[in-house]
Amino acid sequence: MDLVKVKWWDIIGHTEWHDPKKIDAMEAALCETVAWKYSHDKKLLKLVGTKCTDRDGHYELGDVNIIPAGCVHSIEILEKGKNYTKQRTKRSSRVRS
Question: Rounded to two decimals, what is the model's pTM?
Fold first, then answer.
C-alpha cells in the first residue's frame, strides 16, 4: 500500500432550520488525512491508518476511513508500498486486551 496524504471535502449536515442566506454562506471544510491507500475506484477511496503484522507474517488493518471518490480533492503519494488488496487477510494470533 502507498502511504498518501489525501485532501478531501468533508460533508456537512445540519438538522436545524436556517435562513437561506445562512445556507448560502455555508462551505465544506477541506480536510487532510495521512494514511495507507488500501484501494481507490470510481466510487470510493479506502484508507487504513494502522497495519499490524505478527511474527508469522499475518496481518490486520485498522483505523479505516472510507471517502466517497467525489469528495477527494487530491492524493499525494508520500511513499510507495506493498499492495495488500489482492491478498487475503489472515487472523493474527496476537493477544487482544
Answer: 0.76
* 3-state class (DSSP) for residue 16: coil
The grid coordinates listed for 73 are 480533492
Amino acid at 90: K
Lay out the sheet containing 72-79: strands in order across: 59-68, 44-53, 30-40, 2-9, 72-79
pLDDT tens digits along 40-54: 999 999 999 999 988
Q: What is the per-residue burial (b if ≥16 Cβ within 10 Å, else e) of 76-88?
A: eeeeeeeebeeee
Cα separation, 88 vs 57, in Å, equals 12
